[in-house]
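Now for one record.
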Amino acid sequence: MRDHLPPGLPPDPFADDPSDPCAALDAIEPAQPLDAAERLAVEEDLADLAVYEALLCRRGVRGLVVMCDDCQQDHYHDWDMLRANLLQLLVDGTVRPHEPAVDPSADAYVTWEYCRGYADAMMNPVDED
């Protein structure tokens, strides 16, 4: 079975299919493992993500929106997909292609910067004295 994805990702619908359209990707050189600094950054992102999800999920936020450098469009990522992507980076230094969200409600997604500011405000309340 070709489905060697980290936990949290959906199963590969083409696992063991000889006409798998992604078979050509197998010929691509594997990614280089993350160096210590990159690994630490991903681990910090995972920790931050857990805090952001805990704070924002109950407020109806489904995940993050990220502007794609390649296509200059917003990409919407649910919490689980983000976590799976970061875990995959730790495992093999790359993120596999994934399907974009279907007709996402843009209001249900926020940026990393918004999350950082919200978490900072919630963890460091201002005294009104």
